[in-house]
Design brief:
Elements lengths: L1 H29 L9 H22 L3 H12 L3 H4 L4 H25 L1 H11 L14 H18 L3 H18 L7 H7 L6 H7 L4 H4 L9 H5 L10 H4 L10 H4 L2 H6 L13 H6 L2
The structure holds zinc ion (2 copies).
């Protein structure tokens, strides 16, 4: 099993990504939540170009990806689960949950440290919110996330299966929770007691600072509830809310690939970085 997963890791992830992406794209056409404000073709072309660039870059820099690090840890007996005898199912479940918690903390850090917020702004300057927003990250943020993931895998020593499951799950949920899709409110309420739904994550893309600095979870909704960053709905409603950052509205910076790649290096960081004193005063 482990051998199969190691050999076909890239194919498993690509097939899962394309499958979920196509399902979400169709769902967005059949039951859209909001009217998009930007021309869709241009946004999609640029957001998709960015994910293709990121995928190629990651494969070039880290050909064996996170799975390769997990294999190395297992061979050398590095990390908690390679040292402590744990039932397989427990090690897989605990690893997936811990990795998800780390992603939550990492996301908060990308909002709190000005240099990291510069990179993460690329995700937040999308002027609309749909499935392609879930793939839109600056290459430097993607590389940093990967290095953080490597460090956690070395400490944790998770089973190989847990790493692949987590990667596929994180990709799939990121596409799902950025979907411009309508889910009946009762079903949304039931789902978000466990996972992050599009209505929950859309709040995080609001132009209002206190809403941007809430709902940091990507996968399990537990972390936002646990750490007090949960916000149920946007103040202006899902149809009326403005998506993006007030100081970044120019399509040259916010839509086109060249602008997106250069965006972290422009301007000063005055927008929406978590400021402890301001955060305490937020409604
Ligand atoms: Zn964010
Ligand atoms: Zn997002």
């Amino acid at each position: 099993m482990d051998e199969f997963v190691t050999l076909h890791e890239a194919t498993i992830r690509l097939v899962a990504f394309l499958g979920v992406f196509l399902c979400m794209a169709a769902w967005e056409i059949l039951a859209p939540r909001r009217t998009l404000h930007q021309p869709k073709a241009e946004r999609w072309l640029n957001n998709i170009a960015l994910v293709v660039l990121n995928t190629l870059l990651l494969r070039l820099l880290f050909p064996t990806a996170a799975v390769g690090v997990a294999v190395l840890c297992s061979t050398r007996q590095w990390g908690l689960f390679n040292q402590v005898d744990t039932p397989g199912w427990l090690a897989v479940a605990a690893s997936v949950i811990i990795l998800d918690g780390v992603i939550y903390l990492q996301h908060v850090m990308f909002h709190a440290v000005p240099a990291f917020w510069r990179l993460h702004r690329v995700h937040h300057t999308d002027l609309d919110f749909d499935v392609t927003t879930g793939t839109r990250f600056h290459p430097l943020e993607i590389i940093l996330s990967m290095l953080i993931k490597f460090a956690v895998i070395v400490l944790l020593g998770p089973p190989l299966l847990a790493v692949v499951m987590f990667e596929v799950l994180l990709n799939a949920t990121s596409l799902f929770n950025h979907g411009n899709i309508r889910i009946p409110s009762r079903l949304d309420g039931w789902l978000r007691s466990i996972i992050v739904t599009p209505d929950m994550h859309r709040v995080h893309h609001s132009h209002l600072e206190h809403e941007t600095n809430s709902n940091f979870g990507f996968n399990l909704s537990l972390w936002d509830r646990l750490f007090g960053t949960y916000r149920a709905q946007p103040e202006d409603g899902h149809s009326g809310m403005v998506i993006g950052i007030d100081t970044w509205r120019d399509p040259g910076h916010c839509v086109r690939l060249g602008g997106l790649l250069l965006l972290p290096f422009g301007g000063t960081v005055t927008d929406y970085v978590i400021n402890r004193r301001r955060w305490k005063q937020m409604p």
